[in-house]
Amino acid sequence: MHIRIGTRSSRLALWQAEYIQQLLQAADVTSELVLIETKGDQILDRSLAKIGSKGLFTQELEDQLRSGTIDIAVHSAKDLQSSLPADLSIIAFTERERVNDVLVSRDGSLSLTSGQAFTIGTSSTRRVAMLRHYCPHIKVVDMRGNLQTRLRKLDDGHCDALLLAYAGVHRMHYDDLIAEHLPISDFTPAVGQGSVAIEAADTLPLDKLAQVRSLTNHEPTEACLKAERAFLRRLEGGCSIPVFALATWAGEEISLTGGLISLDGADILRETFVGPPAQAEQLGHDLAEALLARGGDEILQSIREAL
Ligand SMILES: NCc1[nH]cc(CCC(=O)O)c1CC(=O)O
């Protein structure tokens, strides 16, 4: 069997695609990478929240899934919209890496908890809002681009540190630059953070679908991400909305913590629900409903007006 894998060409995207290739090789499935440029790779001068993130890093890959020039598309799970078009679906989620965010700097003594004042570069509305909430002494500057671009801006003095997902930093071998691991209790990660998702069109032959899924899907991660993504979907959030959620599989149950935060960091709502893995999506939906009823609808409204 031979699988054509569509991927963006950033170093992190290539790492993810090659990781999938390795998993496929275990059963003698050969594969090739098809590099695809997306709009998100081209537009580098505007903030993601302003462009409107729907499909920004996925549209061109999805076009090729439909035309059949690729069999599967590989994404960071957290970059995938919460609702996919009806003819496409996620057929696998890989086992999650550590999910937390990290402070990255050339100065290893920097810490967010120490009260030191310094400047952090990030373009994530979730991270900006959480910094305003938990670390009001920190100055935030907007910073887009892939990891390598951001590190160059860090070295050029645009900021003292970056706030990034551990998963990407580790996969790019920048562990030496980690000044601090942030606690998930405060800096709850974005939905899907740390997992690689495989997307396919409903025209993919069933034998390919079954083989790819059996070699790459991690069931506990899949159940957790289903809960998180159902939560995000109910809030109609893309990755530019400061919504966060983390599900963990413990014993016989899934524990889902999710919330949302106003852009200025003033209002934050966070709640944990527990339920059976077989009803992961219901759990995400119910948690979202509960937060909407507790003032989340007003926070969302203010976010939408501001973005
Ligand atoms: N939004 C960009 C993005 N998409 C996935 C990762 C990191 C790896 C992952 O969580 O899958 C990153 C960078 C970051 O947020 O630091």
From TrEMBL:
It catalyses: 4 porphobilinogen + H2O = hydroxymethylbilane + 4 NH4(+). Binds 1 dipyrromethane group covalently. It is an enzyme of class 2 (transferase). Its EC number is 2.5.1.61. One of its GO terms (molecular function) is hydroxymethylbilane synthase activity. Its cofactor is dipyrromethane. Pathway: Porphyrin-containing compound metabolism; protoporphyrin-IX biosynthesis; coproporphyrinogen-III from 5-aminolevulinate: step 2/4. Residues 3-201 form the Porphobilinogen deaminase N-terminal domain. The porphobilinogen subunits are added to the dipyrromethane group. Tetrapolymerization of the monopyrrole PBG into the hydroxymethylbilane pre-uroporphyrinogen in several discrete steps. Monomer. This is Porphobilinogen deaminase. It comes from Fibrivirga algicola. The lineage of its organism: Bacteria, Pseudomonadati, Bacteroidota, Cytophagia, Cytophagales.
